[in-house]
Amino acid sequence: MSGTKPDILWAPHQVDRFVVCDSELSLYHVESTVNSELKAGSLRLSEDSAATLLSINSDTPYMKCVAWYLNYDPECLLAVGQANGRVVLTSLGQDHNSKFKDLIGKEFVPKHARQCNTLAWNPLDSNWLAAGLDKHRADFSVLIWDICSKYTPDIVPMEKVRLSAGETETTLLVTKPLYELGQNDACLSLCWLPRDQKLLLAGMHRNLAIFDLRNTSQKMFVNTKAVQGVTVDPYFHDRVASFYEGQVAIWDLRKFEKPVLTLTEQPKPLTKVAWCPTRTGLLATLTRDSNIIRLYDMQHTPTPIGDETEPTIIERSVQPCDNYIASFAWHPTSQNRMIVVTPNRTMSDFTVFERISLAWSPITSLMWACGRHLYECAEEENDNSLEKDIATKMRLRALSRYGLDTEQVWRNHILAGNEDPQLKSLWYTLHFMKQYTEDMDQKSPGNKGSLVYAGIKSIVKSSLGMVESSRHNWSGLDKQTDTQNLNEERILALQLCGWIKKGTDVDVGPFLNSLVQEGEWERAAAVALFNLDIRRAIQILNEGASSEKGDLNLNVVAMALSGYTDEKNSLWREMCSTLRLQLNNPYLCVMFAFLTSETGSYDGVLLNRYIEKLTNEMKEAGNLEGILLTGLTKDGVDLMESYVDRTGDVQTASYCMLQGSPLDVLKDERVQYWIENYRNLLDAWRFWHKRAEFDIHRSKLDPSSKPLAQVFVSCNFCGKSISYSCSTVPHQGRGFSQYGVSGSPTKSKVTSCPGCRKPLPRCALCLINMGTPVSSCPGGSKSDEKVDLSKDKKLAQFNNWFTWCHNCRHGGHAGHMLSWFRDHAECPVSACTCKCMQLDTTGNLVPAETVQP
Description:
- The protein is an alpha+beta fold.
- Helices cover 28% and strands 23% of the residues.
- It contains 24 helices and 38 strands.
- The chain has a five-stranded antiparallel β-sheet with strand order 1-2-3-5-4, with no helix packed on it. The chain has a five-stranded mixed β-sheet with strand order 6-7-8-9-15, with no helix packed on it.
- Helix 10 runs parallel beside helix 14, helix 11 (534-546) runs antiparallel to helix 12 (553-562) and helix 13 (571-579) packs antiparallel against helix 14.
- It is elongated.
- The chain starts with 6 loop residues before the first strand and ends in a 32-residue tail after the last helix.
- Mean pLDDT is 80; it is low at 153-170, 302-307, 725-747 and 776-795.
- It holds the Pfam family MIOS_WD40.
- GO terms for molecular function: zinc ion binding.
- Belongs to the WD repeat mio family.
- Residues 394-609 form the MIOS-like alpha-solenoid domain.
- It is found in: Lysosome membrane.
């Protein structure tokens, strides 16, 4: 292109060749340099590729536009548009096929000389070539040539044709085009429409025009300034792009009145726009004096029929090189690959990398997409990270119905896998709380049942000042000590700790036996000592020392206990006070601390302070065993908040708080947040049945959480609720027999609005008014109806529900609609083409808990 910036073209069928068009045509061959060195004379295009010059063609001066022949044979045939309007066929190689040898050098001459602006080969009929020319008042601006037509020496005599200054040559001339279009106008850009061989889109001087060669006297056009660079999306043949100055317009040929989209205007004029041939909806634009190519990724989202929405545009910029870019060309087959050329003919091979989009499913499956490839992250077999993830644990627990056992509450820790000792302690504590609350309610309803769920901290605080001191003997020693009688609150606290069972008798024997069976010798000895049974404590220590897994040092501890004396200045007391801190086991240490303490040291005030301190420690650590102290109170919510912050286990937090918390605790924002997040998790995992079970469980334990009816079917005439009216008692003075229905209301058929008596809509399939049970429609037996109604005792089974499409408003009985859409895609109403079921994005989803692994 004489006096202009160079252009570049990839070969349509030879993926390793391209042409640079300037004052001459230069053919290059691209080869990989990954495992080889750069050859002499080659041009480096990128780190992995280089170009070698194959041939140069200087026979066609004054080039204005170039188009590569689209057919396979001949391979290197190009059409060149010149400044005088002529179109010349030339070649960049020696083709030995005599069939096409006559085409080389052929010229197509318009009646009046003027500049040729654009060329376009027909993709369906490879012999047709369209040329767009400047305006001439007595000539057409769009000429369509047949390159195989005979030359016409009788019309234009053979003469010397001036090609350049001082040089002449005799050529074959064709002067009669196949079609002539666009009289008294200028054509700035052209492209054939791939959907039809005889449809041509032209960017004229002031409008975009679609010419139909079957009727050249008529054309469809739209007035616009965006008439340059018209190009068709190769993946969506009704979408066309054009530009004017710095603005790009996107057209839909089905709605050709106005652009469907106008891209962001650039500060400088555009020089080229091109659709990517390997990527759907990707448009590249280049502005003058710029080293940046802007990419527009047009993504369409499915919308209901009839809704007009603009496509989502993702805009980004790439910089293939540092210098200004004169032109670029997409590679025809390599994905997102292009080659750019600068004004000084420096070239660069560049690949546009796709943005990687990650998708992390709720079941911890990680996938990402890059271009046309979809990758999945596969965990190694020895990697147990997923097993430790709390989301995986909660998902498995939900499948095992964790938290839903309200009778044997302690069994929930087994449903959780019986691996976490904190969960075991939590559910046993909740089990005891539920058990003792029921017992206390039976004895004295409404008295102290709520105190059980308040925790040991509140129970002990309420018992202060209600104890009496007395003298009790040590078991195994002829000595007495001052102790405190246990009131109901203290007994309840011991019961919650599991030390004693139901009843008023303070007997820790069963609890000691269970500790001995589990091998907790030190703890059992400490509990026996706290109950003033020093002989039993010594026996337990001896048993532990003689057992297989026991510690022989327990005999030494038992020997030390046997020497107990209550004299303050005794050597035994002095040595035990000094050496007890060196013991590693906390139970052994606290045993000697108890024996060496002063009388009266364990009064109620000190105990209350200790419980307060221990409660704060549990709350800070988020230790679930602290629920025994805090109960399901505000302190319990604080403790559970620390636990959730540490583990993320909203499942346990939700079930625990619902177990017996008072109403003010359940209304706490944190508790509601945990519950809603757990419900959302179940929905995300597609555990819809589990979420429904959780909602039922929640409504039983917290009646205030039961939601009100949010959706109902209303009459189209009076607006009253049909579903509510059908489920309540009929209007006063009017029985069901007046509507031709006898029997109980559960067997009624309501085919009209109970409010205004207008008939209900008809089912699109059975054509019977809605409200009529499906089983009583033609084709069903009456016996089936009786069986169905007596089975579930409901007014309307799901098959009888009102169902309609929100787009076309057609519908009917749910059972009929489901049956229809199992075999059909379109609406059952005649002449309606709505694909109702495809508009429902969740209609074909299956609950995950029902899917077989």
